Amino acid sequence: MKTIKRKFQKGFSLGEVLLSLAVLTAGIVPILGALLGALTTSLKNQDTIIAAGLAQEGIELVVNVRDNGVLSSASSAFVGFPNGNQTCRIDINALALSDPVTNQIECGGGGIQYYFDLSVEPSNKVYVHDNAQGKFKRKIFIFLPPGRDEAFVTSAVYWGAYDPTHSTVDTDCTALNDCVRAQTVLRPWK
Questions:
Q1: Less Cβ around it within 10 Å: N or C end of the chain?
Q2: What is the chain's alpha carbon radius of gyration, rounded to the nearest angstrom?
Q3: Residues 103, 43: contact at Cβ < 8 Å?
């Protein structure tokens, strides 16, 4: 009788395959965790940078009202400003920008703010002012002390649960609270 020689194919056993999968998984999971953390940080930083630009825009709009007040030959550079400690809002179409003598910056209670919505037109990706919706919100705090020729202005942009007030904006408006602020002291230049 003739013996048949069988060729044995060499391969991996089930245990070896499972062990290699476990080692591969143990190496990939931390890398994916690090990538997810980096993405989260990147998105948070993007929001902070956008908010900083919107906060600075708020300051610039108030500066324009002051400048137009000076140029209008009014009795005060702050003719378009509210007296006292006010929570305000202003956008690029504000009447106080074009005529501060007859129009003041819009101010009211603590809830006065502007929302910002990203324009959906592909050629014009800018944040536009909106009264009702948007990720970012901006309040402008103006303090015009009686008898002094200067105004203290804080522009706060926030996008989380924190809602700034006059008493908390200087201490609690931080990136950790999803809030960014810009501040300036305005004086007449003429």
A1: N
A2: 29
A3: no
Residue-by-residue DSSP string for 114-140: EEEEE---TT---EEEESS--SEEEEE
Q: Assess contact for 82 and 104: CB atoms under 8 A.
A: yes
Decide: residue 113, CB within 10 A, 0-12 exposed, 13-18 middle, 19+ buried: buried
Work out whether strand 151-158 and strand 136-144 pair parallel, antiparallel, or are unpaired.
antiparallel
Of the chain, the percentage scoring pLDDT greater than 70 comes to 91
At 92, the pLDDT band (50, 70, 90 cuts) reads confident
How many other β-carbons are positioned within 10 Å of the β-carbon of residue 155? Answer: 27
Q: Which two tokens stand for residue 46?
A: 């993007």
What is the rounded CA–CA span in Å between residue 55 and residue 58? 5
Per-residue pLDDT reduced to its tens digit, 45-80:
889 998 999 999 999 999 999 998 888 877 788 888
Going by pLDDT thresholds of 50, 70 and 90, the confidence category of residue 111 is low
Q: Which two tokens stand for residue 156?
A: 């706060």
User: Which H or E run contains 44?
Assistant: helix 14-71
**Position 142, amino acid:** I
Phi-psi region of 76 (alpha: psi -120 to 50; beta: other; left: phi over 0): beta
Nearest to 180 by CA among 153, 156, 154, 152: 156
